[in-house]
Amino acid sequence: MTSASPARSLSDRTYLQLREDIVAGKLQAGAKLKLEGLMQDYGVGMSPLREALARLIGDRMVTTEAQRGFWVAPMSLAELDDLTRVRSLLETEAISSAIVKGDAAWMQSVTDTFSQLADIEAQLPASAEALTPQLLEAWESSNRAFHASLVAAADSPIIIRFRQQLYQQSERYRRVSLTASRGWRSVTEEHLAIYEAVRDRNVLRACKMTEIHLTRTADEVRKAFAAANPERFLAAT
Amino acid sequence: MTSASPARSLSDRTYLQLREDIVAGKLQAGAKLKLEGLMQDYGVGMSPLREALARLIGDRMVTTEAQRGFWVAPMSLAELDDLTRVRSLLETEAISSAIVKGDAAWMQSVTDTFSQLADIEAQLPASAEALTPQLLEAWESSNRAFHASLVAAADSPIIIRFRQQLYQQSERYRRVSLTASRGWRSVTEEHLAIYEAVRDRNVLRACKMTEIHLTRTADEVRKAFAAANPERFLAAT
DNA sequence: GCCTCATAAAATTTCGAAATTATATTGACA
DNA sequence: TGTCAATATAATTTCGAAATTTTATGAGGC
User: Fold this and answer.
1) Does residue B68 approach strand D to less than 7 Å at its CB?
2) N or C terminus of chain B: which is more exposed, having fewer CB within 10 Å?
3) CATH number of B10-72
4) In the prediction, which pLDDT does A3 show?
């Protein structure tokens, strides 16, 4: 699964692999995580496995009940709404700070990551069926890098960390909707609008565009859920 | 140490005990956490201990380097400022939401926790020397309960969780300054002002009073650090 | 005297199994 | 036939020690 990762211990590696498999949906929301099975699947012992699970509980990717085991954290429309709301709050705060504090090197990194993302988005096919897994992975990676670079210069490590955590949680939801047909054109335009606002150091516009981007993304996800078997992915709301 | 706690497993209990000992300063900031020693001190084996540490890393109470072990997370004035800033952001958002969404039962719980806190604050002595550990613990508990009740009706589980985490982190800093002399009178007045604003469902005033309260508390902590051996508690800023 | 390399000690990380707790099954009784 | 208790099974939790990695120690060479 995840191969070349900066994991210095088995525990680290297992944590990253489990997280990726949950985000990707290989481990379905709500599924019971049997320790015996996970030890076999990931080829590790009890200790690093439990350590990885403890970290995933902090990330809200896994839930636990004492003496009863572990489950993949459920998904819900209520959580999607909450995630979107708090991301808006933190992301706008972070971008505002970054625009004020960021130097030329930061602006260059924003330009670079945006260019790479724009290149990939230009290659995206119109139909969802023609979207290869490789291209999807490249887009996910570039999208993550672009949004991370936007807030990298913010002078609040705590906000940056919280934002990062919520981004990962949201990725779970986005992955479900990305396999369905999407309005890629709109996303591309939204990224451009954010980039231009940041480039011009226009705080208000950058915040507004960011909020629109997050809201629209959440709308897409909500639609995809409504279309394809919501009961498979969603807990009772 | 922590005795009657809702811990269903050794791992849980160890997590709570370690966190309390770090917040209380029994485990000093920056100190190396030797696994062998911790196993003896807390009377547990390797597995629950490492699980507890993994959770504390998520809470930013502990840091780790692969293959090199664990340390009590350092403290810094920079982090105090960041904590104060983000707490203001989340706390005001949460209180606003709670005032709008909260029902009569919530308002009652706010009144109850405020009354209890006011009672205890009325008993506080003028000089720091006369402050008993029992009274300090009672105040910490009531203060926590009051502030928690204020935001309990907010309709964002994520904000409530983040707020809770930052409150615990801040408690570490506050404990250092509480042993020094304090302007208790001012804190009492601030709590009253927040309570009255919430009781009147005055969102703007509740937010403003909350911000003032957080800022003044941080100022007290900063002063206490300047007075008493900052290099003992603080990492390089 | 100082740097380098080999060796020893200490600490972390991981495994595998024992002990504990929860869940499922079976049989007795009303 | 349904309910409850007793037993058997399965799963989680914990321990203690082996394996790995880092850090400290000391000898030899420049």
Assistant:
1) yes
2) C
3) 1.10.10.10
4) 37
> CB distance from B89 to chain A under 8 Å?
yes
Q: Which of A55, A93, A157 sits opposite B54 (nearest CB)?
A: A55
Partner residue opposite A156 with nearest CB, options B50, B86, B158: B86
Q: Determine the CATH number of domain A77-228.
A: 1.20.120.530
Task: State which fold the B77-233 domain adopts.
Answer: Four Helix Bundle (Hemerythrin (Met), subunit A) (1.20.120)
Query: Is B57 part of the contact surface with chain A (CB cutoff 8 Å)?
Result: yes
Number of neighbouring beta carbons within 10 Å of residue A197: 20
Domain ranges of chain A: 10-72, 77-228
A50-59: pLDDT as tens digits? 999 999 999 9
pLDDT digits (tens, 9 = 90+) for A214-232: 999 999 999 887 776 555 5
Q: State which residues between 52 and 71 of chain A bring their CB within 7 Å of strand C.
A: 67-68
